[in-house]
Design goal:
By secondary structure, the protein is mainly beta. Among the domains are: about 80 residues, Phage tail protein beta-alpha-beta fold, CATH 3.55.50; about 70 residues, no CATH class. The chain has four helices and 24 strands. The strands form four sheets. It has a 15-stranded mixed β-sheet that branches. A four-stranded mixed β-sheet has the order 18-19-17-20, covered by helices on one side. A three-stranded mixed β-sheet has the order 11-14-13, with no helix packed on it. The longest helix is centred in the C-terminal third of the chain and has 16 residues.
Length: about 375
């Protein structure tokens, strides 16, 4: 097994790296049914950390599969000399493809959707979770009922239970994914996501402002992966700098107060949107949230606060392929053409399977 340093060196030393791609047909338990790499004629993977379904694939396949049901796991390999590393790129439920009749061999252009799509079907009725039910237990029961057997659940909030019953009425918009993410938000967890292998991940939210960088991009001759095409956009005119979160499901009979059903955060000094930078101007956003308790309210509110505070500056760049990127990545960028050294959050990226440049959209973090 390669060390982390060896993998980083393989990706960064792009001059001698050979990039190849492949794909596996898998089942819902993520077991490999068949490697169909010989039938893969190209494509790309796109991931958006803030989308409802975080990932899509666009693949060219030169054989018939059980379209609409087949699960595909594309992958990329990188080689330099005797060193090779393989990177799985998620699992995707295939659509019914467009057939290119004139192509030889016959080629299907297939759109694939994050395996989370299996959770995105409408509930189709009224759904309720009783008071006293463990939040994570309710989430796991839904995952299992929808056919998922491979998932990792952070058990740090396993003892938290619903203080009151929660009801999702019958409508045409509520999906099992909505229900799962609503339950997770109530205990300060981020929305469920699928990893490189296709496993679902359920994790407590960690602010990217307080995480270390997962990758460093710079412009030095030895390690630069950044292409010449890059832009930076700044737009923070109406961005809030004060947030008031109110707990919807407060079980006490008294009105919620600060510290007991209300959480207020004001950005006094961080970045261009702060109260100080705006000469004392305060822009408030009020949020009404379901939460397990005051700690859950703070965690849920912080997800929206972090998103607002990283939504004022956008950077778009192209880099050499980096298949280590995935979900909500924090990076350090040292590119004098873009400005001072900055921390950024990966909002979205598209990775061509042919080894072409990877395009990224990054949000600058205010730290």
């Amino acid at each position: 097994m390669l060390t982390q340093a060896a993998v980083v060196a393989l990706i960064q030393n792009s001059a001698g790296v050979v990039v190849r791609s492949g794909a596996e047909l898998v089942d819902m338990s993520l077991g490999v049914v068949e490697d169909i790499s010989d039938d893969l004629a190209g494509g790309s993977i796109t991931r958006d950390s803030f989308a409802t379904l975080h990932a899509t694939s666009q693949l060219a396949i030169s054989r018939d599969l059980d379209w609409g049901q087949a699960l595909l796991r594309p992958y990329m390999s990188m080689s330099a000399g005797a060193t090779t590393a393989r990177f799985n790129l998620g699992v995707y439920l295939t659509s019914v493809p467009v057939r290119q009749i004139e192509a030889s061999p016959l080629t299907h252009t297939v759109n694939g959707y994050d395996i989370l799509l299996a959770l995105a079907s409408p509930v189709g009725g009224t759904y309720a979770v009783d008071a006293g039910t463990a939040y994570l237990g309710a989430v796991e029961a839904i995952l299992q009922a929808q056919g998922f057997t491979r998932y990792l659940i952070d058990q740090s909030s396993a003892t938290k239970v619903l203080p009151t019953s929660r009801l999702w009425p019958l409508d045409d918009r509520t999906t099992w994914l909505n229900v799962v993410n609503d339950l997770l938000a109530s205990i300060g967890y981020q929305g469920v996501w699928s990893d490189w292998d296709g496993q679902l991940r359920v994790q407590s939210y960690q602010s990217p402002r307080f995480r270390g960088p997962e990758w460093v991009y710079d412009t030095s001759l030895a390690t630069s992966m950044i292409g010449p095409r890059r832009t930076r956009e700044r737009d923070f005119f109406n961005a809030p700098n004060r947030w008031v979160a109110v707990r919807n499901n407060n079980v006490d009979s008294t009105p919620p107060t600060e510290g007991d059903g209300v959480y207020t955060y004001q950005n006094d000094a961080i970045g261009d949107t702060s109260v100080a930078a705006r000469g004392g101007r305060v822009i408030t956003r009020v949020m009404f949230l379901d939460a397990s308790d005051q700690a859950g309210l703070i965690q849920a509110a912080n997800q929206s606060i972090d998103a607002d505070m990283s939504d004022t500056q956008t950077i778009k760049v192209e880099t050499f392929p980096n298949p280590l990127h995935w979900h909500m990545d924090r990076m350090l960028v040292n590119d004098p053409e873009l400005g001072p050294i900055m921390d950024v959050l990966g909002e979205s990226w598209t990775l061509p399977l042919d080894g072409g440049n990877q395009s990224h959209t990054w949000k600058v973090l205010l730290t």
